[in-house]
Amino acid sequence: MNFTFDPALSPYIYFADLAFVGFAAVALFGGVVAVGARRLIHAVLGLVTSLVGVAGLYVYLGTHFIAAMQILIYVGAVSISITFAVMLARPPSEAEKDPRLAPGKLVAGATVALFSAAVLGAVVLGYPWEAEPTRVEGTIFQVGEGLLTRYAFVFELISLVLLVAIVGSVVLARRGRGRHPTGGE
Amino acid sequence: MSNALPPDLIRLVVSLAVVVGFAFANAAVLVLVERKVCGHIQRRPGPFEVGPHGLLQTAIDGLKLMGKQILVPDNADTKLFRLAPILSFVPPIAALIVVPFAKVLQVRDLDIGVLFILSLAAVNVLAILVAGWSSANKYSLFGAIRAVAQNVAYEIPLLLSLLVVVMWVGSFRMSDIVAAQDGFWFVFTPMGFVAFLIYFVTGLAETNRAPFDLPEAESELTAGFHTEYAGMGFGLFFLGEYTNMLLMAAIATTCFLGGWNGPWFLAVSGTGVVATLIQLCWFLVKVYGIILVMVWIRWTFPRVRFDQLLNFCWKVLIPISMANLVATAVVAKLVPLG
User: Does B6 touch chain A (CB under 8 A)?
Assistant: First the structure.
């Protein structure tokens, strides 16, 4: 760590640390709500909370643009569409409302959780974390330049994937319309 | 620690307090303005009893709202029901911090200024959704569903019309956008004018103002998503709505009407106290001019039907704004404006 701090800025560092802990707590809390909620809409709002916490972490890292995009796209568009789908879906039956805790599910869940924890933990502990020698700029200019030059191919590939998804959803919607000519149940 | 309170922190706290105060004052004044203008358009005096010419009506209304019991319906989802009004008024107030009221009167000049406002505005839909869903009332739910369909659709032309300006300036920063319009406002260019019209229409829809006030259509859905709210819960929704109007007018002023710049023969670009006051005056004159037009439209035009609303957006506004964006790109490439 070769940073030299202006001593006048030291209070800010405490605030920043506090903010990091706060945002991480918000993200984790939202995640727990999203997984544990009984009602689907609570789960969606838990997801939103978690995403806002992650956006806060982006702000903490100084990448305002990515934070704004996180809010605009994930909170403003994706979770709204999820909520919309939840609202339009039929209400859950009694059995679905209170799912039983089968041992098979428990084992499967625990396996996945442990596996992810092991992989992520190995990566985090095994990587030599070093502070960047210069200040990293996550500005809009660098993001834009990266998308149009170095990552142009990946960028186009993603738009192709999204196009396929859109076409697929239109096809599915049209097929549904054919099966129920009146549009209802 | 000699300087436990850095001056920048003090500046931040003070300016946040000022912004919050301004948002509250704005809502209080606009409620009265709305009722007075409405009254005069309908050839009646409007509120007239409290204070001279009814000027104290909002203050008394605010007191009444604060004194009322906050009722939560039996079947409602209590936590979400209480959360929704807060969600609806915090983001627009937070978005005010990037608005340049004058050359030096801006809390934070973020490099993503326009995006920052738009991303916070997106949270407003979520607030309406939470309010409508948690009320456990079919009118509220219908209001919420309408709000989502409407806001998601109208957000697209809104973004596209603002992109015209961003493309021209080459920056999302509010101060750059204002600086680029020194003596030359975007509304007076062909593309800028079209973008301004589209922005204004979509802004009306995004703030749920008549003729696009379907989420709260009184005659069909009683009051839509805030049917079940009483007292200050209702008050906070109104605060959010009027702050959103202010924000929408402030973006229009900044992006299309030259921000705090006066007309070219009256432009003052200094940073002194007098210059700042003049700039603030210009900014507020433009903002409240736009808001007055919004109020005027509300009491002049009838509400549209929902299919008309969505068709108008998808079949008229989005193609026009796409074409406008392409035209801007071509012109900006041919005529480098600096």
Answer: yes
Which of B12, B81, B126 has the most A C-beta neighbours within 10 Å, making it the best mutation to test the interface with A? B126
Cβ neighbours around B175 below 10 Å, total: 18
**Is A11's Cβ below 8 Å from some Cβ in B?**
yes
Instruction: List Cα–Cα distances, A140 to A63, A73, A102, A154, in angstroms.
Output: 9, 16, 48, 18
Q: Over range B39-63, report the average pLDDT.
A: 80
User: Where do the H-state alpha helices sit in A37-151?
Assistant: 40-60, 64-69, 79-88, 94-97, 103-126, 140-148
Interface of B with A in 19-78 (CB under 8 A): 77
Q: Which residues of B fall within a CB distance of 8 Å from A9?
A: 6
pTM for this entry: 0.81
User: pLDDT class for A91, splitting at 50, 70, 90?
Assistant: low
**pLDDT confidence bin for B2, thresholds 50/70/90:** very low
Q: Is residue B1 part of a domain?
A: no
User: Most A CBs within 10 Å: which of B97, B108, B120, B129, as the mutation test of the A interface?
Assistant: B129
B37 within some domain:
yes
Option in B119, B152, B155 nearest A71 (CB): B119
Residue A90 pLDDT class (50, 70, 90 cuts):
low
Buried b (16+ CB within 10 A) or exposed e, B220-255: ebebbbbbbbeebbbbbbbbbbbbbbbbbbbbbbbb
Residue from A52, A71, A78, A145 to probe the interface with B (highest B Cβ count within 10 Å): A71
Does the structure's ipTM exceed the value 0.90? Answer: no
Q: Would you say residue A112 has pLDDT above 90?
A: yes
- Across residues A176-181, what is the average pLDDT? 57
Q: Is residue B262 part of a domain?
A: yes
Residue A78 forms contact with B (CB below 8 Å): no
Average pLDDT, chain A: 79
The residue segments making up the domain with residue B205 are 7-334
Q: Which letter does DSSP use for residue B222 in this model? A: T
Domains within chain A, CATH numbers bracketed: 1-91 (1.20.120.1200)
CB nearest to A72's CB, from B80, B111, B115 = B115
pLDDT, residue A2, reads 46
Could you give the C-alpha distances from B6 to A7, A11, A12, A15, A61, in angstroms and in order?
A: 11, 8, 9, 12, 21
- For residue A161, give the 3-state DSSP assignment: helix
| Tally of structural domains, chain B | 1
Average pLDDT over chain B reads 81
